[in-house]
Amino acid sequence: MGADGGVGGFLDALRGIVGEAGLATASEDVAPALVDWRGFFRGDALAVVRPASTDQVSAVVAACARAGVAIVPQGGNTGMCGAATPAPGGRSIVLSLSRMNRVLDIDLLNDTVTVEAGCVLSVIQQRAAEAGRLFPLSLGAEGSCQIGGNLSTNAGGINVLRYGNTRDLVLGLEVVLPDGRVMGGLRALRKDNTGYDLKQLFIGAEGTLGVITGAVLKLFPQPRESLTAFAAVPSPAAALDLLARLRSAVGSRVSAFELVSRFSLELVLRHIPGTRDPLTEASPWYVLTALDDTQSGPGLREAVEAALSEAVEAGEVSDVAIPGSQAQAQALWRMRESIPDASKNEGLLYRHDISLPAGDLAGFIDEAERALDARWPGTRVVCFGHLGDGNLHYNCYVPGRRRDDPQAIAATDVNEVVYALVHARNGSISAEHGIGQAKVHELPHYKGAVEIDVMQRLKAALDPAGIMNPGKVVSPPG
Ligand code: FAD
Ligand code: ZN
After folding, report:
1. Domain 225-341 maps to which CATH number in 3.30.70.2190, 3.40.50.720, 3.30.420.270, 3.30.365.10?
2. Residue 1 has what pLDDT?
3. Which residue in 317, 105, 101, 84 sits closest to 206, CA to CA?
């Protein structure tokens, strides 16, 4: 491919594979795929290609490999670091999995579900529930993100505490490699030590090593008893004490434990219609926790209520609301899940998705706020997240930085302040959102040189021509 006629021929070849319905080239059809959820990254593409089967994905990838055209896999396009957005310039296609959206099989004896990569997460949750099982992956974008995207970002969400990350929920994976070959691996085995665990390479690879086309996922017993509590706590340290108290009271039945700062809640109340303050008095911090039991009966509620009363006596909790109905509980979770949306339009937000050992979290929150305020007085911090996993979404607005100022958008000085504090505590600069293009240049500062070298070698071994989602996760050596 080279001259314009070449592009036409290439697109004709793709059309021959996926049909008219699977190829979009008109700018109004392509445009939504060229910008990320945050509206930070924009790019160009020759087409959005929507194959309907693994064979079609394989043929499309092979055609791209022959023509030297880059492939940017895209799921629900809800990712937070521009990983699904093509580069400006246009020598690429966006490969959307949205037509491969079938649940292929639910096996109740084996407790597994086999899906195509384009399945929307909430559809898988719903199909599992209809079969009397739980698929525990749950996050704010679940109504539009796809399992292929979840796998490729190794998404976390609110139930990691009990069920693990996406990586922990996978038994088998089918992948189309950058040369078009299909690596079939839709095995539903809980034990399989036949050499390297290849599927794990592609989980969290953000589409840089291949295209995930299908997966076998684990199912779990459905909870019979569920309880949500929203507690006002004086500090993050008190929140961590509360987590320890709940765990010693009810063990692994704590399935979610989320921290919410007062300012995060205020943003939701300000920007999301129909929301209201769950408690009468303001508190600097809150915890939203979910507890589940696969046995029915009064045991869970009694144990949690007793632990919460002890927490009030110990000064860990100043007030608590336990919703009386599922609708009330859902309203609390909607509040928590609306924080990203609510903070989107308040100003230019510098986002950080960090993780730390539990013992370092409270100290980090204190120190980071002081460091930011010393350098940029009046900085407002939106701190919330999966405290039980040591994962905070530590975002901030810096006075004078505007959303329409490209220089402010590109500035990395705020990130550097935050990441230096994270790095000093052996934390991670990306707990669950990935690297994408947003952090590709920052990663080498915070990951070991040998680790980066191994990543580059893996990338070069699987994708020597560098056509699979170039410019994301790891830059070529040199
Ligand atoms: P996309 O954004 O389309 O793609 C993400 C990456 O995966 C890209 O690199 C893309 O190339 C690659 N990819 C997509 N499909 C495939 C495939 N089939 N094969 C190979 N590569 C592929 N994330 C969390 O981890 N936890 C949260 O709690 C959370 N909450 C969120 C809340 C909101 C409101 C929003 C908008 C996002 C949230 N996210 C969260 C981020 C995002 O939803 C996740 O990263 C999600 O897993 C992305 O899925 P997607 O289908 O939208 O992927
Ligand atoms: Zn999150």
Report:
1. 3.30.70.2190
2. 62
3. 84
Helix, strand or coil for residue 391?
strand
Q: How many CB atoms lie within 10 A of CB 135?
A: 26
**117 CB under 6 A from ligand 1?**
yes
Q: CA nearest 432: which of 231, 170, 227, 160?
A: 160
39 close to 85: Cβ distance less than 8 angstroms: no
Which residue puts its alpha carbon closest to atom 13 of ligand 1? 149
pTM summary value: 0.94
Q: Over the stretch 159-204, which tens digit does the pLDDT of each residue have?
A: 999 999 999 999 999 999 999 999 999 999 999 999 999 999 999 9
Q: Residue 176 corresponds to which tokens in the numbers above?
A: 């189309």
Q: Does the 2-99 domain belong in CATH 3.30.43.10?
A: yes
Give yes or no for a contact between 155 and 166, defined as CB atoms under 8 angstroms apart.
yes
The Cα–Cα gap between 58 and 47 comes to 17
In the reported structure, the alpha carbon of residue 384 is separated from the centroid of ligand 2 by a whole-number distance in angstroms of 9
CA of 418 to the centre of ligand 1 (A): 23
Distance (Å, whole) CA 28 – CA 309? 57
Instruction: Note the pLDDT tens digit of each residue in 208-254.
Output: 999 999 999 999 999 999 999 999 999 999 999 999 999 999 999 99
Say if ligand 1 is within 6 A of residue 94 CB. no
Question: CA–CA separation, 396 vs 379, rounded Å?
Answer: 7
The two domains 225-341 and 347-446 share their CATH topology (first three levels equal): yes
Closest ligand 1 atom number to CA of residue 432? 25
Among candidates 75, 200, 220, which has minimal Cα distance to 136? Answer: 220
